[in-house]
Every structure is written in C-alpha cells, then in structure tokens.
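Cross-posted from the bioinformatics board.
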Amino acid sequence: MDVENLMRIPIDRESPLPIYRQIVAFLRSAIESGGLAEGVKLPSTRQLAADLGINRITAANAYAELEADGLIYNLQGSGAYVAQPFLPPAGRAAAILPEEDWPLWQRALPPPPNSPLHSLEEHIRACTCGRSGLIPLHLGIPDPGLFPVDEFRKVLQAVIRRDGMDAFEYGDLAGYLPLRKTIAHVLGQEGIPTRAEEVLVTSGSQQAINLVIRALLQPGDTVLVESPTYSGALDLFRAAGLKIIGVPVDERGMQLEAVPALIQAHNPKLIYTIPNFQNPTGVCLSGRRRRDMLALAAQASIPILEDDFVGDLRYEGRSLPALKALDPGGQVIYISTFSKMLAPGLRVGYILANGPVFETLLAHKRVADLATSSLIQRTLESYITVGRYQAHLRRACQVYRRRRNAMLTALQTFLPEDTQFSTPHGGLFFWLQLPKGCSSLELLQPACREGVAFLPGTFCYPNEGGEKYLRLTFAAASPEQIESGIQRLSICIRRECVVSK
Amino acid sequence: MDVENLMRIPIDRESPLPIYRQIVAFLRSAIESGGLAEGVKLPSTRQLAADLGINRITAANAYAELEADGLIYNLQGSGAYVAQPFLPPAGRAAAILPEEDWPLWQRALPPPPNSPLHSLEEHIRACTCGRSGLIPLHLGIPDPGLFPVDEFRKVLQAVIRRDGMDAFEYGDLAGYLPLRKTIAHVLGQEGIPTRAEEVLVTSGSQQAINLVIRALLQPGDTVLVESPTYSGALDLFRAAGLKIIGVPVDERGMQLEAVPALIQAHNPKLIYTIPNFQNPTGVCLSGRRRRDMLALAAQASIPILEDDFVGDLRYEGRSLPALKALDPGGQVIYISTFSKMLAPGLRVGYILANGPVFETLLAHKRVADLATSSLIQRTLESYITVGRYQAHLRRACQVYRRRRNAMLTALQTFLPEDTQFSTPHGGLFFWLQLPKGCSSLELLQPACREGVAFLPGTFCYPNEGGEKYLRLTFAAASPEQIESGIQRLSICIRRECVVSK
C-alpha cells in the first residue's frame, strides 16, 4: 500500500452532511487559514479514497468543487495542488480566535516563568525597528565571529564519515565518553583535577543549572546568590519557585561577612556563585573569600554551585583556584560551557560533580531530554584537542583584551565624571554606576534610539534594586563599534541625567 | 601576556607549608587521582610563576621534586609532561571517598526521578555481559540503519557553507522559522492544518512533554493517562510530583466510558494520550472515541496532550484524524518528533499549540535550555523537503511492514497457544499477554541469557500491574533477527511458564 501524501481528514459518517462536503469544508478551512500552503501537493483521489475508506468518486467530487472555487488547481499528469487563497491577509489573521473563545484552562494559565531578558530583547527590537546598525553591548555572549566555522565544518564531516550512524544515536546518557575525557583533561590542565566519570554533558549551562535545581531543591527552598548575578540563573530559580536571597558584591566578590547570619535566618539549600569575572560585575572572588565560602558551606552542609562561565578568559593578573579545586570532597558542583568559547548555538555545557549527587543529576538529565546531541558532542571531541582549545583560548584572550582596552579608553574619554566603573581583568563585562538620580531603565529607550544597547542593572538583581547600574559587554563588538557605542551612550547619559536631575 | 596552559593551583600564602610544597602536593594528588592524565603538558615554570604570582625558582623547585618522584618528565626543548603514575588501579579507585565522608547534604539527597528504563538497560547489560548478539526487541526506537547518513552529511555541509556563523548562534527561541514552516506544511499535508507561528521546536519529544508539564501543572496535580502508556512520559509525570490515574485500554484505545467518573473524582489537569499505534499496545483510538474524548475534555476544560509519535507509520487500513485536527480551538496540544523517522540522536521534536498557552510554553523552553541546536534545525529544514520526507516515510513503511509481518508469522509459529496478541496496523510494537501465571519480569533474565530482550509490561503501568504483558519492537531488527528472537523467547516462555505453573 502506498502511503504517499497520507492525509487524515476527519470524516463523520453519522453526520447528515455528505462526506464530499465534509472534505471540501475541511480543506477549504485549511487552505484559507494558511494551514495548507500554496503549492502543496494534495493526495491523488485514489489515495484519498483509500486513506479515508471512501468511494473514489466522492473524493473526485470534493476536488472538483474545490477546483471550481479556485482553491486548488490540477497540473496535467502530476496531480492537484493548493492554489493561492483569495482571502486578504487580514482575513487570515481573523482565523485566530478572540480571547473569550479559548477554553477556560487557556484563560487561567499559571503565570509563565519570569523572563525579563526576553522582554528586553523585544523592547530593544521595538526601539530600533526599521533601522539596522544597533551596537550590541547588551548581549551576554562573546563575538561569534571568532568561531572557526570552516575548520569545524571539516571536523564535522570527518566525524560523520568515521562514525556513520553511531553519530546520530542516543549514546551514553552522561555524554560521549571521549568528550568527557577531553573535558577532564582541559580542567586538569587548569588546576581542577577530575575524572571523566565525574563529568556530565548538558545542553548548555542553562540546562546544567536547571538540573542542579531539580536534583537538590524543592519549591519554597532558599538559594543564596550574589546580588547582582546572572539573570538567566535568576529566571531558573524563580521558575522553580525558590526564595532568592541576594548577598551584596564588592570588588572582592560576594561579601561573605553577611553570610553566616543569612544562613542562620534562611536555612538556604544552595549557594550559587560566579567566582571568576562575575556576571554582571566582572569582579573575582578573592582567594581568602574562596576558602571562607567553602568553610561556611561545609560547616552548614550547603552545596555550592560554582558557575565558571568564563574563568579562563583572563587578560592579566594572577589566576585564582576554582572553588572546585579547593573542595575537600563533594561540596562543590562545578558548571561551565563551551558556548562562550566556541559558539552559543552548539548548546553544550557540562557539570562536574562527585559523590552520590552525580547519579541524581544523571537521572534528572535522562528524564529532562534523554541526551544531548550525539553528533555535536562527537564533533566537539574531535575538534577540541587540548592544544587546539588552548590556541583558541589564547586567540580569544588577545582579541577580547584589545576590546576591553578599547572600551576602557572610550569610557575614560566620553563618560561624564560622576559615572563610576572598575576595570575587569577578564571575562566579558564592564559594570557601570550611573550619576546620581539616573535610571538605567529609563536610559535604555533613548540609548536604543541612538543605536546602542546595554543591559539595565535591574535585570541582575534577585529582588529590588539595580536602577543606577548597567552592564556593557565588550567582547561582542569591534573596537570601532565600542568607541562609537560608548560615545552615543555618554551623550544619552549627559542628556537624560541632566534632564532628570 | 600568554595564558597558555593556564593553571589555577590553590596557594595559601598564610600556610606554614612552603609554596613549592603546596604546588607539589596539589600536582601529586592530581596526577595520582588521574585528574591530570598521563601525557598532559604542564605549563612552563615561567608561565606557572606568572599565573600564581610566585617566584620562578619556586616553580622550578616544585617541578624538580615532582620529576625526582617520577610523577612528571621533561622533554628537551618542549616542556614538562605528566608521567604514568605508579599507583595501581585499585589505589586510584580508593581516591573516591567512602560514603560517610561525603557532606551531609550528599547523604540526604532527594530521591532521583524514577527511571525504570535506565535500570532495565543496566539489567540487560548485566545479563548479557561479555556476549554480543543480543536481539534488541526492547527498544522504543526504529532501525537507525534506515537513516540516510551520507545524504544528511552532504546537507549539513551545504548548510554550514551557506549560513556560516549563523548556523551556530542561538537563533529564534521558538525554533528556526523555515523549519517551523516545513513542519506546518508536513502537518498540513497529513490533515492537521496549522501555521508556523503555532509550532515550537524542542529537544526531542521528551522535552516537549516536560515543557507541557511545567507550563500547565503543579506538583500534586492529577494527570489522566492510558494504562499502559509510554514509560518515558510516566517518568516525567512522576518526576514532576504528579498524581497519575490510568484509564484501561482496549482494542479501540482508552476506555472513555470510565473517564467522566474519574474526572469527577480526581479533577485531572491534563489528559495524556497516544491515539495512534499506542505505545506500548499498538492500538488506535477509534474515531468515535476521539470525538468523545474531545467533548469530555472541552466540557470539563481539561487540556489534551496528544502524543503522535508514529502517527504516520501506518501499514494498512484507514487513517483517522488527529485529535488536533478535530480540535474546536486550543483544546489540544499536539507533540511529535523527528527522532522516530530520522535519527534519535538528532534530538528534535516539536509542539503544536495555539492560544495563550503557546507563549507560556515558549517561556518555559527559554528558561529550560534557551534554544535547540541551531545547526541541526537548519540541516533538518534543508533536508526535509516535503517530498523527501514522504519518500523516506514510504520507504520506512515498506521496511517496517515487512518486519511487522515477519514478527506476526514468528509469533504465530513459535508462541505457545495460550499467549495472546493482536496485530498492529502501524507503529513499532506488538503487545503480548503471557500464559496465566507467567511474569514478564521473571522472564526477562532467562530471555536475555538466550539473547533476546523485551520490555516487561510493568514499565508501562502508572501504578501496579502489567506483569503478564510484554512489549516487542519489530521495527529495530531484521526479519531474520526477529524470527530467531521470537523463537528464543518462545522457548523461554514454554520453559519458565511451565516451571512456574
């Protein structure tokens, strides 16, 4: 039996409406709503009759009526095709139901997870619509232009030739073992000794954070975070129904002095920290505080989630040990990603965890999406020899250091004097404090109109606050763009903040 | 500054232990635990000194001691490398902590989500260890051998050449728009009129189900399912803390007669159904019941989640309309996947939803993992022209129909007479009822020893039950393997069931 163009049209044999009319009504509605697009080939009448268990003449009658109405056309010897419907675009849009016609449950949906970044992007699009050339200082990702597309394409080719169908199957749930070995080697070289058996590959670090939440926390539990911190993590904590307590950050990272009292008062079940070139402030947790944080967490038996998203993008100064490297055993869950180094669309991150929690994380990974793309994992493994990774890292550091310097110079040149910032020694971001009385949220729209976007500080705060701060990404734009962007931003600050004063 | 071989070794300047000894202790432990693998290149002493802010002589002293201990070696003009550690493998395994040394929180983890399938795979591995040639009638996936690897590889190449870096960025959160258009066209051709704007691309249908749960349900809510049903969905429902009520299935699908009373008693917030070639029973929901289910759900305002995982793998008989095609508007959320048709490792599925729930699902997708691999989506889009998809489908149906027939013949030939089954008209599975007193769980181990695996029915039941059933997949093995597998299985049934009677 031939199943080409299988079409499952609902037929009600008990209806008083003749079957051919039911077919006409169904196809007419599908074509007019755009569900069946212009040029789509319809099944032959023979096929339609067999599929629906009807007489072929019935099918032919239906097609004849549709053709007479100009909804389909016949090509000699080829078959019937959908014609362009006569409805104007407005008519098609009307095919969408008015709100009161949706089922009751659709009108009382639980609130979706808070996604301020999503609305930021929509807001920026709205401010700049119709014009191109926005200087993107708001993104949390580095320059995709550094990604060696052509080299990666060749490796991809070689992997498919080598592995054939294996590259497309589920594979090991914890991740492709050779890739986990490579990750363990790269981490070992960075002073984080580990074994492949402790590495769990995830679909980006966003999924990694999500798995840790699922494995360790219940709705209503409390998590301690730096304030400000990574907005995507805040999204996840909020979506999981967690209570978020922010600990202020200074130039040496999370202010640990406040933490014992917070532990006492809130009994947190997790400490989330970005110790290196923190998002959004760019600061590093000091060596002393790293040891103190571990001691505090061990004493209260609170797991630490260490997000080391750009720990190896260091442009100067001395490196500090990862919390995971200081971990006496099983206290720290370490996550990182290849998205920042290679390409965000690859969606490959990883968790480093030892102890019983590894199996719990693995079980949640399996339930969440079964596995991460085997093909991409195999290609990454083949691509990332340790030497190649470090060559890429070296190149990225050179490029980003230049951009960091370009932004530093521009900020020193153009910004009004009462705007404050410090210079990050690595990572992706500058964190600006605006002149008194100036709100970054109010500044966003004029800045976008001027052609430059940034992240308002409010997006990075667990609860209230952040109006006077904004985050600038120097890693995603050229030095020329950066100079122009900071110049435009400075004009806006002078104009808006003087007005609002 | 050079950041090659960046190594973040924890140094405590307040410790009485000299710094060079701290470095030695750290590297020794890393090498002996296998965290720094044999052959890994260490940073130069100059580099290490710069990284750690120490004197170069201190670094050289540390390396000298490690070399004297045989833990590293120097290659003239190239640098220092990790040597093979002298520890025996048993010594390395001992580097893992005994249970009582883990932090308290690791010893009191919340129970991981129930993953019986994971333990099934481990069980099967344990039964067959050391031997190859297991006939895999237990898998839920069709034959990966049908996937046109080489053709796909060429399309992948062309896509990277065409799109360059764009193929590696995040892209549209709801999915690559041209792919969503293609999905809408394929569905339109199958009698499910829709628009690209109603299609949300996911990382496989496992994530699709997970997103629907997150969007609609709270822990403690009730979901109605067919009993038996897809074990992966049961895993997700359990992990989300849902109460699962099973509705018995007969040869016309879910027994809807029981549903009004269940709705009354349990106030379910979702109905999960697989109307076509159900997993695991292979039955189709009758046309009459499809209409009745929609009417019941509309009346009680309960969303229907329609999992159409193999709706188009039909080998004979008349097609039935999808519930989504009968949906008066926004009552049904439809999910499907490319994994069954193309390759499971691709991890691309989709949700079809209209009404306000679409935005809620999208927000949860964004929070869960930001996006699905852009490269794979673009390649799929380029690969799946409607014509090519249908050619692939036609070929798959031919192959699977032959395998279905082979299994049918083998079952009729070899099975003891008191074993019951009916013949599926599509999909992947036969569902067997064993002779009285015979347990499929007890049968699994002897069958694996004989070289054939199946899925015990218990895995598919929401609560108790299923011992006397088992699921056989005919789509993942050749006709010869199927014949041999059923022969072996029949021998086991005769032997074990006679013994246990």
